[in-house]
UniProtKB/TrEMBL annotation:
UniProt keyword Secreted, yes or no: no
Ranges that cross the membrane: 21-43, 63-84, 96-114, 126-146, 158-181, 201-221
Domain of life the protein comes from: Bacteria
Protein name: DUF998 domain-containing protein
One of the Pfam families matching this protein, by short name: DUF998
Keywords: Membrane, Transmembrane, Transmembrane helix
Length: 285
């Protein structure tokens, strides 16, 4: 039957709206990670005990850290664009926090940390607080998105990524405090900071945040497909001779009128049965 033939072919054109954003996001994030890896290879810095910020002062690879972080910031904005293009419900808080994450990364790249080899206290303070804002904003944005994902299978992956980021942030915060206490001359913490290297915990935090970013990008892709599936189903139903008002009055999923996004299960309208709503508005000839 034509109706079921069209239904079987449904979804082949899904993902077009987010595709440019996804390509930019993956390209920028991938390039940022690649640049960081190359910098670690060519620099004489110790990745275990030296923070990423210290790579602004290095014997080889000058400027590569800023390029890497800026690339990650661009990719993060593209993730925000993908979520918007997919029609994912986002509050102002979610949008603001994702923007702050990107702006924090950009500010950290433009204003490097201050070190004895290249002292700049003002730039160092801006860098410190920009990093703090960035690392707090991304998981906050993901948390604020959870309510919109209630009942969706993608929510579990976002929760897992948030937990991973939170654990990594906690480890980094502890190691940061230990280093500061060690620098202040508190003797017991010198050995503790050596056993709890800040370089490792900071890199774990960055990787956890990248995983969270990619998880949000995956959410945008999957939800766009879900939304497109509902729209295409409405078009298929009309082509098959069903009334034009099928989406508004006649499609009932599990006994309830299906909206553009069934948050409790995200089921495609019609998969679990189509019934005529006796209370729906009558179709005009």
């Amino acid at each position: 039957m034509p109706f079921f033939e069209n239904l079987n072919g449904m979804g082949t054109e899904q993902g077009k709206r987010t595709r440019p954003w996804r390509l930019v996001a993956l390209g920028a994030i991938g390039w940022g990670l690649f640049t960081a890896v190359v910098l670690h290879i060519i620099s004489s810095r110790n990745p275990v005990y030296d923070t990423l910020s210290s790579y602004t002062v290095t014997d080889r690879g000058d400027g590569m850290l800023a390029a890497s972080v800026l690339s990650l910031a661009i990719g993060s904005l593209a993730v925000l664009g993908a979520l918007h293009a997919a029609g994912v419900p986002m509050s102002r808080t979610t949008r603001l926090l994702l923007a702050l994450w990107s702006l924090g990364l950009a500010a950290a790249a433009v204003f490097p940390a201050s070190y004895p080899e290249a002292p700049d206290p003002v730039s160092g303070e801006i860098h410190l607080y920009a990093c703090l804002v960035a690392f707090l904003s991304l998981p906050g944005a993901a948390i604020s998105l959870l309510e919109s994902l209630r009942g969706r299978p993608e929510r579990a992956a976002v929760v897992t990524a948030i937990r991973l980021s939170a654990v990594a942030f906690g480890l980094f915060a502890i190691s940061f405090v230990f280093v500061r206490l060690s620098e202040a001359g508190v003797e017991p913490f010198r050995e503790i900071s050596d056993a709890f290297p800040i370089g490792v915990t900071q890199r774990l935090l960055l990787l956890a945040d990248v995983v969270l970013l990619l998880t949000l990008l995956r959410v945008a892709t999957r939800l766009e497909s879900a939304f497109d599936g509902r729209r295409e189903f409405g078009g298929v139903a009309v082509q098959a001779g069903h009334p034009a008002g099928v989406q508004e009055h006649h499609v009932v999923v599990r006994g309830e009128v299906a909206g553009p996004f069934d948050q409790r299960g995200g089921h495609l309208a019609g998969v679990h049965g189509i019934e005529h709503d006796a209370l729906g508005a009558a179709e005009k000839p």
